[in-house]
Amino acid sequence: MITSFLMKSLDRSILVVVAILLGLAILVPALNLLTAPDHPLHVPTYLVSLFGKYLTYALLALALDLVWGFCGILSLGHAAFFALGGYAMGMYLMRQIGARGSYGNPLLPDFMVFLNWKELPWFWYGFDMFWFAALMVVLVPGLLAFVFGWFAFRSRVNGVYLSIITQAMTYALLLAFFRNDMGFGGNNGLTDFKDILGFNIQADGTRATLFAVSALILALCLILTSAIVRSKYGKVLVAVRDAESRTRFLGYRVEHIKLFAFTVSAMMAGIAGALYVPQVGIINPGEFEPGNSIEVVIWTAVGGRGTLIGPIVGAILVNGGKSIFTAAFPEFWLFALGGLFVLVTLFLPKGVVGTASAYFARRRAERRAQTGETPDNLAVEPIAAE
Amino acid sequence: MKSSTETPVAHATRQDPSERVMYRILQILFVALCLLISTHVVGLRAADDLGALVDQLGAAKLSEMDERISALAKTGDAKVIPVLEALGEGELYQRKSDGKVFLVKAQGADLLLVDPVTGTEAGQAPKAAMQKVKVNNAVRRAVRSALGGLTLFSDDAGARLKAAQSMLQTPNADALEAIETAIAAEKDATVRRVLDEARAVTLLLSERGDDEKRQAITLLAEGNGRNGLAVLTSALATADASLKPDIEAAIARIEQTQALWSAGQNVWYGLSLGSVLLLAAIGLAITFGVMGIINMAHGEMVMLGAYTTFMVQEVVRNSYPALFDWSLAIALPLAFLVTGAVGFAIERGVIRFLYGRPLETLLATWGLSLILQQSVRSIFGPTNREVGNPSWMSGAFDLGGLTITWNRLWIIVFALAVFAALLFLLKRTSMGLRMRAVTQNRRMASSMGIRTPWVDALTFALGSGIAGMAGVALSQIDNVSPNLGQGYIIDSFMVVVFGGVGNLWGTLVGAFSLGILNKFLEPYAGAVLGKILVLVLIILFIQKKPRGLFALKGRAVEA
To answer: What's the rounded Cα separation, in Å, for the pair B244 and B250?
Structure first.
């Protein structure tokens, strides 16, 4: 039954990507842990963490693709959900430090001791338990997205208006988290983590495991979104994207459909943030920067929105490029990024993956026309004009 | 001496004319000689006295300094001023060998000595031979008030005003007589008012009678009381029981007026912030209104305008320094042209290919903003650039209890002027008519023969040009750096969304109400929390009125 569900909800390209991700989840940790440092195929630990970071970005881009690519909601606040998930995980990691902090306080994190706080604020309770933190990673961004989306979609805020108020939301959170008395470490954020689930966070084994977990969760989320998109609900989602009023007149509750996608997407973004924090080792208010959210949009656009695979490819391509560029020509990275925004929107509106798949689809159609076959059912059309 | 010369004159009246002339000449010579000798002697003695007094500074303990400084100040001699100033600055040294005190300037390893009284150079001395006259904050305070007393009698009304203000801020009971003499001699009404207040403040600290003190309290209660409050509060602790109710009433009255004025000050700050928001948002409002697109590079247009101002000021400073006060007037049209041209190029080069896809336009313009920022950073460097205030924009004046800075005032005036000009353009010119037609119904306007692409390009150039002019104004109050624009972009969006699209009045009301709301929340919630509250309020407001305060109605905008 499960296999038939999988086969129905996934097309071949998604299966290929899932297989690649699973392969990476085994191969990269293996190459890191089992080969000697001077072996030609050895993957150094810093690269494992770097690739792991890309995978969490890819998950964030995938989450955005669900709302932007399939529902037409351009959220400029997805980095906020990402950062909230990250903070939830960061709080768990902070509590794990225990008495090993610089001030040696068994209960309070260092920055609270520094601020002369006497007791733990109520919202830090429970974060010493992993299951609670893991729940919050999903719940907090999901709840924020639910409340925000419920208000916004109900009063039919859409298009650029929605983009702007999501940006205002992340900006407000940015300002809030910068405040010291918020109780989240202010400007410096949360850092100096020691261990996760009892394993040393700096150890090679933990890093490799985190990478594998990231790849695994990305694969799972890819299957999930693919299932959502190919379900009956997914068809309505695309209908909302392409003709919102018409869908409403057909009797669908457009706001509910949007709200579901928005909330699921925010939860995925939260998970991405939670995976990001232990691999990077810090979470600070800078993650709420409105510019970050817009950067996520460009990853998705470069890969190709509405393709699910595209955002993953785009996130890895752009961030890989960023790592290379900022090391080699730091001056020019912003030119390159800015140019990417302009060129992709002008010349590559379907993104890399969208353009490539359109090209192959055309080739196949031509071949069929020659052999006289009938085309099989086409998948969801990736992009429609707004 | 004069009386001694008068007696011979009385004799001379009875002598013959030639002798009389002779005598008169002798007499004049004698008088002149006497005067010369007497002034010389007196001068010498005064100089000696001063020198001795100054030398005493060197020998005094810190606790005695107060006394010595007032002794110096009581001479009323203008020569004391540089000495006291040097003392305050810590430039007064004592020679260890003979205890004489000198003004000192560092010259290489040695110290250059200057005689404090005559101002002539007195050779050099190694640092080891000199000892610094000790200064602490109490001494500095004493120096300041002594200096204030000395300049009270200056010929320059500005200097007198400054002195009076310093007496008002750091009252000193010893200065009471000096202030009273100064009040008697003062002709200038402004200076006199400050002096009266300073006298009242000083009097409360002195040993005068209760009636005089009561008068002083009434005077302080009537003034705007910024200095009075502190003095009254400290006087309350030491005052007689009979005076206490008066003081308490005066304090209550001052606090009440102050609360009123501070509300007024908040409104003023709010108007000022609102005018800045208006300037930043108004260009955005027309491009958004007419073309329905979000220009994320708008903040960078503001930044380009500010850098244009910087360039103009550089050229003016280097080539025509006399024109510096006019530099903003030169920069204004230039900034409009520069940013307008950049806007035109962006519209023709990028945006026109993206019509009907507002979200993509948003991304492309964001990309452009990154490129513009980085270009400016590469050309001008990442640090802040110095943009000066012309003389007519610097300084402040008091309006009742409000302190109003000229640059803020001019920016409000400028924002309103830009607003009025735009309103005129939109409502009274054929270009404006076309823009309004396109805003209301693009396809219908197009069918009526309006070249909508041309209107779009000009609108975008106009919006960018106005952003550039906003940049000229903002360069006066904000740091001119490549990130200048980013600070305004979200706020400008909020103004546009709040005010409603396609209506300039909405932008005006939106900008000023957000500005005032922000400044009223600040004292209660702090600057950051206030801003967060405003953002949350706007997000909630959008739920109620998704199209803003002044929404355009009709089918065209619903599409």
So the answer is: 10
* Tokens describing residue B31: 């008088």
Determine the 3-state secondary structure of A52 from DSSP.
helix
Domain locations in chain B as residue ranges: 2-138, 152-242, 262-558
Q: Where are the beta strands (DSSP E) in chain A?
A: 190-191, 195-196, 199-200, 282-283
Tally the domains of chain A: 1
CA distance B152 to chain A (A): 48
**Structural domain span for residue A279:** 2-299
Number of residues that make up chain B:
559
Give dist(CA B52, CA B117) in Å, integer. 10
Q: Does any domain span residue A23?
A: yes
Is B359 in Cβ contact with A159 (below 8 Å)? yes
Pick from B201-215, B253-267, B414-428 the range whose average pLDDT is largest: B414-428
CATH of B262-558, one of 3.20.20, 3.30.2010, 3.40.50, 1.10.3470: 1.10.3470
- Report the residue of B535, B536, B555 to disrupt the A interface, i.e. the one with the largest count of A CBs within 10 Å: B535
Interface ipTM above 0.90: no
Considering the domain boundaries, does residue A378 fall inside one?
A: no
Residues of B in contact with A385 (CB under 8 A): 356-357
Q: Is residue A340 part of a domain?
A: no
Position with higher pLDDT, B370 vs A182: B370
pTM greater than 0.80 (yes/no): no
B358 near A CB under 8 A: yes
Contact at 8 Å (CB) between B478 and B272?
no
| Phi, psi (rounded to 5 degrees) for B107 | -135, 95
**Closest B-chain CA to A74:** B359
Number of residues written out for chain A: 386
Interface test with A, best of B354, B528, B539, B549 (most A CBs within 10 A): B539
